[in-house]
Amino acid sequence: MSEKAQHGPVYFELNTGAKIPSVGLGTWKAPPGEVGEAVIAAVKAGYRHIDCAHVYDNEKEVGAALKQFFSTGVVKRDEMFITSKIWCCDLAPEDVPKALSRSLEHLQLDYIDLYLIHWPFRTKPEMRGFEPDIMLPLCLPETWAAMEKLYDSGKARAIGVSNFSTKKLKDLCSYAKVKPAVNQVECHPVWQQPALHEYCKSSGVHLTAYSPLGSPGSWVKGEILKESILQEIAGELNKSPAQVALRWGLQSGHSILPKSVNESRIKENFNLFDWSIPPKLFLRFSNIHQQRLLRGTFAVHETRSPYKSLEELWDGEI
Description:
eight-stranded parallel sheet; 35% helix; 318 residues; two-stranded antiparallel ribbon; alpha/beta
């Protein structure tokens, strides 16, 4: 299923047959003016997957950096794997193709390698946030049918979802003609998601981890790199806690999207393929206290939201 480096995997195979690089650059909270340089540093360091989204407001700058690489021949388009995501305000079926066209235009691409539904949540057209007065009922079967048309057209080489619980993913798979290729979710040593992992493996859906280092410095208060067990293992292996957290993800069988605009950290986060965590140390990760960092309280409302509690949003996986 996966190609091995000295200590791989370098890629995972999706249910479409495409290969998703095991390490990608996350671009959430990467500000305009910095994200282009981060993409350039990442591609030079060996990254071949860039994870984007319309709502990140930086796809134009990512696109300019990619065009620079393609036009100079540093990398070819078919050597890169580009992900984007459709935002909650574009989930009406008639808006789905327009949303992809806009992202393709900003990224200066003819097709996207992977297109994801960003959240199982819907808001009024052209809206950004999660305020109760802009919440709308979900129409996921209709939205997914529109996503399937993008896949059939070739403009999206693979389609998938993000922030879906095990139950929501099972529900989608029950009616999907084209099974989702990926579920991109929060996953790291402090939120390991074993039940979701098992379902993904058994159903042929690849799990990709966003915030694999937590989200230090963002409004998601996640200082997972200070976790004592992680620091102990890092000390024993003479690696940074960040590298150990990322290597844990690869050895757990999912791709990872570390985010940084710092060139030295971008390089460090990719330096994962000439070592591994020995089995005895790997077992110690099961002793880490579990806590979801991105709770999703913004998507919960007594009357307006489809989810009246966090229990409903995550179907008990909190």
